[in-house]
């Protein structure tokens, strides 16, 4: 027999009951196929109810801590909606194509963050080397504005979570691969 439908969890609300999943036909894995996409749905663990959203080609998504709003990256760009799947609106174009991690939403649900890693050529005594430069994008969802913060000297960064409504904790790696 063949492989059936798949569900890949992408984000969980802090109530531990609401999980965003990507649904697809066949095998899906963020580890073996980083460009995978699917249909977004919210799974309520206590009831088993599955609410499929009217979004196709979703590559990443995040739910607010209180499970009231969802942000998603789609083939058409970044969107935000209420958890019932209504009031879908586009987010600033600066966010398009950049993955939303599980910790994308600020605790108060007013901001979204994502990290961008741009390729950069660096001249060294041993020759030209390709590396990357990290930039933190912070979107004020209500205002529809995005602030770009270049992380000077940082080649790669990952969001670990929020300390409070105004402070995100990052793990960063320098050019020499130290963190």
Largest sheet: 4 strands, antiparallel
Strand tally: 13
Task: Return Rg in Å.
Answer: 18 Å
Which structural class do the helices and strands define? mainly beta
Order of helices and strands: EEEEEEEEEEEEE
| Principal-axes shape call | globular
- pLDDT averaged over residues: 87
Low-pLDDT windows of residues: none
Helix content: under 10%
Strand order of the largest sheet: 1-2-3-4
Q: Helix count?
A: 0
Percent strand: over 45%
Report how far apart the termini are: 46 Å
Description:
This protein is mainly beta and 179 residues long. The chain is 0% helix and 54% strand. It has strands spanning 5-12, 18-25, 39-44, 50-52, 60-63, 69-74, 77-82, 89-90, 111-124, 127-140, 145-150, 154-164, 167-174. The strands form 4 sheets. It has a 4-stranded antiparallel β-sheet, with no helix packed on it. It has a 4-stranded antiparallel β-sheet with strand order 5-6-7-8, with no helix packed on it. A hairpin with a 5-residue loop joins strand 1 (5-12) and strand 2 (18-25). The model has no long low-confidence stretch (mean pLDDT 87).
């Amino acid at each position: 027999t063949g492989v059936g439908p798949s569900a890949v969890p992408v984000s969980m609300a802090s109530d531990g009951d609401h999980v965003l999943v990507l649904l697809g036909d066949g095998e899906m894995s963020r580890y073996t196929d980083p460009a995978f996409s699917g249909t977004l749905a919210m799974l309520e663990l206590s009831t088993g109810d599955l609410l499929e959203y009217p979004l196709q080609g979703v590559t990443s998504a995040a739910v607010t801590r209180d499970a009231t709003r969802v942000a998603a990256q789609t083939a058409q760009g970044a969107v935000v909606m209420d958890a019932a799947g209504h009031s879908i609106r586009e987010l600033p174009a600066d966010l398009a194509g950049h993955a939303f991690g599980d910790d994308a939403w600020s605790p108060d649900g007013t901001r979204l963050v994502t990290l961008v890693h741009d390729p950069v050529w660096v001249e060294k005594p041993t020759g030209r080397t390709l590396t990357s430069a990290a930039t933190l994008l912070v979107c004020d969802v209500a205002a529809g504005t995005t602030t770009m913060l270049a992380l000077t000297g940082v080649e790669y960064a990952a969001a670990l979570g929020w300390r409070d409504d105004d402070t995100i904790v990052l793990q960063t790696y320098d050019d020499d691969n130290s963190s």
